[in-house]
Amino acid sequence: MTKHHLSKFEGRIGNTLEDSEAHFPSRSHPGEDAPNVVIILVDDTGFSQLGCYGSDIDTGHLDALAAGGLQFTNFHVTPLCSPTRASLLTGRSQHSVGMRSVSNHQTGFPHQLGHITNHAATIAEVLQSEGYATFCAGKWHLAPTNDISAAGPFDQWPLARGFDRFYGFLEGETDQFYPELVVDNHRIEAPGSPEDGYHLSEDLVEQLLWMINDSKGVRSDRPFFAYLPFGATHAPHQAPEAYLQKYRGRYDQGWDITREDWYRKQLELGVTSEQTQLAPRNDGVEAWVDLPETHQALACRLQEAFAAFLDHTDDQIGRFIAGLEEMNELENTILVFLADNGASQEGGPYGVMHEMKFFNGVFDSPDDLISQIDDIGGPHSHCNYPWGWAQCGNTPFKWYKQNTHEGGVHVPMIIHWPAGIDTNQNGSLRGQFVNVSDIVPTLYELLSVTAPENYRGYEQLPVTGSSFVSILNSPDASATNKLQYFEQFGSRALVAEDAGVYWKAVTRHRKGRAFEEDRWELYDLSTDASECIDLAESQPEKLQELIDLWWEQAELNGVLPLDDRTIELFGSRLDDHSPHPTHRKYRYRPPMSSIPAQASPSPSGRSWHLKALVDCDGADEGVIYARGNENAGITVFVQNSRLVVDYNAFNDHSVLESEIELPSGSNNLDVLVTRRSKSTGQIEISVNGTPSGSIELPFLMGMISSIGASVGRDAGSPVSPRYESPFEFTGDLREVTIQLGLRAEQEDEANGKAEMSRQ
Fold this sequence. Notes:
With 759 residues, this protein is α+β, with helices and mostly antiparallel strands. It folds into three domains: 36-248 and 260-451, Alkaline Phosphatase, subunit A (3-Layer(aba) Sandwich), CATH 3.40.720; 483-565, Arylsulfatase, C-terminal domain; 571-757, Sandwich (Jelly Rolls). Strands 1, 2, 3, 4, 5, 6, 7, 8, 9, 10 and 11 form an eleven-stranded mixed beta sheet that branches. Strands 18-28-19-24-25-26 form a six-stranded antiparallel beta sheet, with no helix packed on it. A hairpin with a 4-residue loop joins β22 (642-648) and β23.
C-alpha cells in the first residue's frame, strides 16, 4: 500500500481509486438551533443617560429592547474603554490579559501590553472555531497604536483576534463626519462627506448588516457573532443637524434641575432604590444658578450636542434591530447592550469647543467661545461637555470615567433574547451585582461552549468571570459575582458580598501622591449605591478587611505594580524597529494610505524639515503633505504653480506662498519650520534650492492634532480653506522626507494630553 505524507487523513489510500476510501472532514458547526450573538457597545455613556434609566433623551429603540428583555441596574465595568473591551471580549480581568490602560500605552510590564495577550482567546476566536461567522463594525482600540498603520503588524487587529470581517477604526476616537477608517486589514477613505449626509454611526450599521446578509444569504444555516462598538458617545459629540435642532432649549434649566428630574424618574422606574440618595455635586461643579449667562448658554449647547448624538445612535441601533427582524433573525439572537464606562470628565469645568486648544495651553473661556456656538455638534467642532453635565449623566452617582467610584464603573446593560428569556420576564429589572467579565462565561453557558485550555498553541488563562445564567429567568436568584476588584491609574476599589450585603472599599488616587497616603472610603452598596454615607470611621475593621482583599486580588490578577502614569505614556519611543526611527527621519513614497497619529512624525513644538521631490507642469496642483484637520493642522500643497504652506493654529491661518513659480519638470521643494521660543516659530520655503519666502509663526503649536497624516492628498476635513479635500496632487510626487529636530520639552506632555482626551 502506498504511504502518504498526510498522516491525519482518515480515509484509505490504495493503488487505485477502487481500493481507496475517500474522507471529507466536516467543518465545525454549532447546531441548527444555535442562537446568534450580538454585543452592542456605546462609549462614555453614563448610567442615567438612556430614557429607560431616567433621562429625557429620546432613546426609544433601546427602551423597547429593555421592555422586551431584561434591564440590569447593578452592572459594572472598568472606568476606561480599552480595559472594559478586553474584559468584555475575554471574560477575564483586564490586568490579567494585559490591558490595564488604553492600548496606546505599553509599559514593559505584563499587565499593560497594549493588546490582549494571546493566552486569552476572545469570544470571537472561540465562536469562530465553533463554526460561527464573526463580524465587527466600530471601534477596536485593542491593538498597540504604533502598529495600526498600513505597515502593520496585523497580529492584534480584529481579523487576527477572531473576526472574519471588520469595518471601523482602530484608535480611541475618530471624527464622526471624517473618520479614519479601516476595512479588514487595510485603510480606506470615508465613503461620503457631511455634505452628502454621511455620518459614521449610520455607516457602521449599514456595513454590519451587509456582512450579515452576505453570510446568511449564502449560508443560512450558520449563526453569527456580531460586535457593534460605536464611536458614540465619545467626544467629539457630533450629530446630523436635524438631531441638534431637536434639542434646542431642552436643557436651559441647567444641570442641577435636570439631575433632580432624572433622579426622580429613576425612582419612578425602579432603576434606583428609595434608599439611594442623589449624590452632592462633585468638586469643581458649580451651582447652575451661579454661572454667568454665557457659561450657561455654552454648557446648554454642549449638552444638546451630546443628547443629539445619543438620540441619533439610538436610531441607528433601531435600524440594526429592524434589519435583524427583516432577516427573521431577531427572535433567536442573544443581544447584549452596554456602555464601556461612565460619562466622561475630559471636557473640564466649562466644556471644550476644540480640545486641541486646551492641550496647547490656550484656555478659551465660555465668553471666547460663544461666537462659535452654532458650530457645536457639527463637522466644524470637536466638542465635549462640562463636568456638570457629565455628573448629570452619571445620576445618582458621583465622579466620572477614569474613577473607580460608581460614576466611573456603574453603567446600563440590557439583554434581549425572545427565544431564551421567558416572556413573563420582559421589561423586568435585575438588581444583582454583575461585572463586564461575567458576560462571556454567561454566553458560553448559554451556547454550551467550553472555553479552550489551549488555543492555537497558546495555553489559556482561566475564564474568571461568573456566569449569571441563573438570574435571567429568575429575578430573585442570588448574584453569582461575590467579589470584584477595580483599578485605574492608581484609583482602586473592591466590592465584596458578606451575608447578603455588598460592601465597597474605594479610594480616589491623585496622580503623584504616594499610594500609601490615599484615603480609603467604605460604603454599604446595598443601601447606599451612590456612596454618600462613608462608614470608614465607624467600621474600620470591615474597611481593613476589604483593603486586604484588594491586595490579594491585585496579586492574583496581575494588577501590580501600581502605576499612576497617564500622559507620559503617550510619548513615542524612538526605535529603529518601529515607525519612529532613532534618526528621526521619515521617508514616504506615494501612493500610500493615510498614517494614524501615533505612527506619524510629530512636527509639534519643535523644528523640522520637509523635502519633497515632484515632477509637475504649470497645471498640476494638490496636497504634498497634510497633518491634522480643519480645526488644527499643517498642510503643504501646490496651487497656481506655487508652493503653499498653511499653518492652521485653531483656525488662525499663517499662510506662506512661494515667491517664484514651480518650473515644469523635476522640482525639489523644501519647507523648514524653526522653533524660535516655547511658543513661536518661523517657516521658510525654497524651490530648487532658491529661498522663496518666510513667515513668522505667532503661535507654535505644542500639539498639532490627534488626527494623522496624508501624503499626496488631504484625507480628512481640509486643513486649509484654500482647497476641498482630498485635493490629490495631480503631478508625480516621487518622495517626501521629514526630518524632525530634537524633541521639545513640552511635546510629550502636549501629545500625551491630546491622546488622553481621545480615550
